[in-house]
Amino acid sequence: MTLRWAKTGSPTWGSALLPEGQNTPRYLGLGFYCYVARATNDQLLLWRHVGEQRKPRRWDLVRMSVFDTGELGPIDWLPDVEPGDPVCYTTGLVANVDLPATWQRGRYSFEFPEAFKATPEVIMLVSVYHNLGGLEQALYIVHPQENAINVVLLDWWNEGDFDFGYQWITKVGRGPGGRLFGTGFRINPFVMKETGEFIEWIQPPSDSLGSQRIPP
Q: What does each C-alpha distance from 65 to 19, 47, 76, 87 come to in angstroms?
């Protein structure tokens, strides 16, 4: 069976895995702000914030999961209420790990199960919280094969003159020479050093995108 991603049209669930050419059944449902990468030919790596959602928006953990697509079972329905873990499935889960969403910058040791070792590096965009309860954007650069995680705080973003309810970063990946490239909602693509330091906008910001000034 060939599976494809499709939008659900639900206000709670963003996308689902469906058989190619069919609208049912669903085999994996994902809420919004879930990220997916291929771990092996038959396995998917997922990560997302989980835990009790508070206001302002806050979660306790970042959960990473490996799913075997050959073992996924059909889902009868997707719940109407947004769950604490925005992933819906019946079978196919291989392994979970939970990372604290409170780490500050630095390198951390973390023992990953063998199921995660097929992925050499994962760059996760994480909302972290310091001791005073403030929200900061960070990267968790995860190396499962080394049982290590580098946490990089994006100071230029956290301290910048942005409209955080209107603009936000959505994706970050690694490019040539080890530099980090990112993009977002109502912001232009940008380049950073591996340490998270801002280098430049790939395309200069226009007035139509609102404020995009970074601290000196």
A: 22, 6, 21, 10
